[in-house]
Amino acid sequence: MSVDENTVRRIAKLARIAVTEEELAPLSKDLSTILDWVEQLGEVDTDHVPPMTSVVEMEIKMRKDIVRHDNLQKQVTQNAPQSEDGFFTVPKVIE
Amino acid sequence: MTELTKLTLAEARAKLAAKEITSVELTEAHLVAAKASDKLNAYVTLTPDVALKMAAASDARIEKGEAGPLEGIPLGVKDLFCTDGVRTTACSNILDDFTPTYESTVTANLWADGAVMLGKLNNDEFAMGSSNETSRFGPCINPWKASDSDADLVPGGSSGGSSTAVASHLALGATATDTGGSIRQPASFTGTVGMKPTYGRCSRWGTVAFASSLDQAGPITRTVRDAAIMLKSMAGHDEKDTTSVDIEVPDYEAALTGDIRGLKIGIPKEYRVEGMSDEIEKLWTQGIDWLKSAGAEIVDVSLPHTKYALPAYYIVAPAEASSNLARYDGVRYGLRVQGDDITDMYEKTRAEGFGDEVRRRVLIGTYVLSAGYYDAYYIKAQKIRTLIAQDFKQAYKKIDLLLTPTAPSPAFAIGEKVDDPLSMYLNDVFTVPVNLAGLPGISLPAGLSSNGLPLGLQLIGRTFDEDTLLRAADVLEEAAGFSAEPSKWWTEA
């Protein structure tokens, strides 16, 4: 098992996904199977190979930095599960 | 009415232009067919009001002589494309009833050219899957049945709703997206044509993101010509997506000359994978013969890093997904599950909102990007990706196109692979390398399996050389003469 239950708990915390105690064992098995399988990449010597940063060789175009006054507040908050006076609302963060 | 759904996109376009039919008639015929297709579960949202309004507007423009290239053509849209005022969910619970206030660039391009929206199509949740079984709306069902079994089959994925709608004549064409094979594999499973253009050809703006360095939109249609027509409208530079390329979009239809004499077609020996069935092997050989008879030259090539493409993909794609899906936090849109504090709210929202496969991939992505593992996994995979792209580059010094099977098998039964992620991933063995290298690829129906299911062949082209790709696909389609249709079992009571 390359990913034990404690590791699953830790990455679930990092990913902000609640995982129940019962789910830890099957997830540990699933993730280990997949990660053990990708280990075969270790066979390939990549010491002098640059990592890919752009899949198609292209110059990224710059666009003009222009301030726009679209006033989209209504559209932006329209789909919020909870909002007030044009603001998103969340549980209290600061004591 | 059924006659109208039998037309190809190109035929419908000609009849509309000649005023033999109206867009309203054509659209109504497709809406009737779509409404009678519940058993297939292809549409997750049908938009008859929008469709008929757009169709009437198209008829008015045709009357005034102002028709666009896709004027009056009814299409289905994968539920991954944001559509203004129409619920868009990526078939995930976490998006709940999200209703965009904007339109994706690809669909906006289609509507600007006169196309009509029939509705939104089923897909695997966030496009993560090869069978359309991970959708929050339940699986989409393949219209095809094996001759020796009545079992429901998967339509492939992630664009299963798109492939099913087109194969069952519920739309003249459909938009789809392809991150590791999600256009081409479902096309292969349903006897349709699926085209993934070069990365950067279509704008990704307004399309729900899965893995941003791999995602690319493209069409699923019933013919290569229809794919050429649809792609021309979908493609183009967009300043809202910096990775969309600012080069001219050629007239792809004009590329269909029927002449491939002298083209050099590469056959990669590494695609002869262990356990490949005899019928796939036979179909591939048949494809080689067809191209040879049409005057192409066949060249054996080697793509030595092929076997590392899938494992590299299953690092890169989940890594990018975990980062992209961080936005679903229950604050700005979609589902929110209340919690004791903000972290508890995030965790509960994401636990309830994401399905099993999405959760699995987000966790893998989080793991390979976490401190201490980033170099060993993510950077390593990106280096492998460089090697895979170099393999193709080397090969294209000697050849113009590659010919391979699209998938290692025909469509499989619902539930057959759903509990075995690895065997599901292996479905994409022939399609994933193409995404890793950003190349254009097309799948077209080339034959039937021994139990009567469609099988596809894949052609892979050079970067931004969709013209040559479509030209050869058109010739191959003609040679294959695939005309089988699924029996219409879903309309029976």
Keywords:
heterodimer, A: 95 residues, Histone, subunit A, two-stranded antiparallel ribbon, B: 493 residues, alpha/beta, Amidase signature (AS) enzymes
Structure, described:
The complex is a heterodimer of chains A (95) and B (493). Chain A has 95 residues and is mainly alpha-helical. Chain A has a domain at 5-42: Orthogonal Bundle (Histone, subunit A). Chain A is 35% helix and 4% strand. Chain A has three helices and two strands. Chain A has helices at 5-14, 21-38, 73-77, and strands at residues 83-84, 87-88. In chain A, strands 1-2 form a two-stranded antiparallel sheet. In chain A, helix 1 packs across helix 2. Chain A is flat. The model of chain A has no long low-confidence stretch (mean pLDDT 93). Chain B has 493 residues and is an alpha/beta fold. Chain B has one domain (3-262, 399-491): Amidase signature (AS) enzymes (Alpha-Beta Complex). Helices cover 37% and strands 12% of the residues of chain B. Chain B has helices at residues 2-6, 9-17, 23-35, 48-63, 105-112, 160-167, 184-190, 224-234, 278-293, 309-324, 342-353, 356-369, 374-395, 421-425, 432-436, 466-480, and strands at residues 43-46, 74-78, 116-121, 173-178, 193-196, 216-221, 264-268, 297-301, 401-405, 441-448, 454-460. In chain B, strands 4-6-5-10-11-9-7-8 form an eight-stranded mixed β-sheet, with helices on both faces. Chain B starts with a helix and ends in a 13-residue tail after the last helix. The mean pLDDT of chain B is 97. The chains are: A mainly alpha (95), B alpha/beta (493). Chains A and B meet through helix 1 and helix 2 of A and helix 10, helix 11, helix 12 and helix 13 of B.
